[in-house]
């Protein structure tokens, strides 16, 4: 019977993974279109024949039986021959012959492994009655087999127990040791054996905007000082300026970042690592946050990541080092794009707090423009107010109803900038109430600010995640696109 394992140049009893890998390698090497050797075509046919045979489980089982009985019969003949020779070499003073097993070889192709590795074990033993390998069970006297490492272990001992012709057991051992150059991967695989639900993302590099990994108390303190200061400033602006829609969106993003820092810090402590749900309890979460400023990091790796590197930077040094690192990470295109967004935000905030010369006007007329009904029957209406018979402005339906029908306001002042209406101050003198009706980029129903804010969030994602060579073209193209939108927003804000 043909040993097809030999044709594919792999050990006997190899599994399907090894068979397929060997077939792909040899078929490429000896394909007639590639290999011009006159014997390549015939060998290519043999390779295909061997693969078709071994990939069939029933046929492979027949070959295994043949190889097994062949090895057993060969080993048995060797044992008989040895016993015959020993009759003439035994010590005449002994009543029985004591023959120890002969280990021709017992080896592994590698002594270090990683998870999901395949290690080739080979053995050949004679002068014995049986052979047992702890990871395989009872085996033939000679053979090869792949050991798949499907679970984490610091060390694996492959123990071969041989029963000699004198019925004594002889043990031989191979020590395999885990080795991984990436300590984070090793730590995760070790934790995974203790906590099956552990997520590998916690063992990747911690990012400012992410929810994975752990941060130490000093890093947490510096981040919270920065974020808390921004939160206080933006909250104040929200109640004092007209562009509260943009400020509210930025506050939501800031609140999420603050939550993510607390989330990662809780995972770093022994006391709260499994109690992050407490962050959702109002007022009690403030007590927890105050404790996070003083609690030490858990001293060992846990299911939420590696022990964070200790830092003693003051807030000033932390800011300086952070800016230097950010400057290194940002390309010129990133700096132009993100700088455009920051300029747009500054312009919007400036327009919202800036005041212009206000001129008293009278509401002289109003009208409603109705568009043609759509296919679903809805009708789009635009509402207009006319002041001093020449200044027409488009307002929302709510303001139109309050001004025209409810007559909530009795005095109006218009602020003009280059003949453009910046805002109208609505005054209710009876109740001493004043409102500011904005136009242009600050208009409440203008989607520009919302669109630019969402684009900025997506830009952050693209910057942090699309770094592979194949993704850079798309990432750079997206940066150019959002930059054009930001520049359009700046143009609208200025003119």
Automatic annotation (TrEMBL):
GO MF annotations, alphabetized: misfolded protein binding; protein-folding chaperone binding
Residue ranges constituting the J domain according to the UniProt record: 3-67
A GO cellular component annotation in the UniProt record: membrane
UniProt cross-references to Gene3D superfamilies, sorted A to Z: DnaJ domain
The UniProt record lists the keyword Electron transport: no
Highest taxon listed in the record's lineage: Bacteria
Assigned keywords, A-Z: Chaperone, Membrane, Transmembrane, Transmembrane helix
Matching InterPro entries: DnaJ_domain, DUF805, Hsp70_co-chaperone_J-domain, J_dom_sf
Signal peptide residues on this chain, from the entry's feature table: none
Membrane-spanning intervals of the chain: 276-295, 332-350, 446-463, 475-494
Pfam entry (one): DnaJ
GO terms for biological process, alphabetical: ERAD pathway
PANTHER family reported for this sequence: DNAJ HOMOLOG SUBFAMILY B MEMBER 9
Record-given protein name: J domain-containing protein
Protein source organism: Paenimyroides ummariense
Lineage, top ranks: Bacteria, Pseudomonadati, Bacteroidota, Flavobacteriia, Flavobacteriales
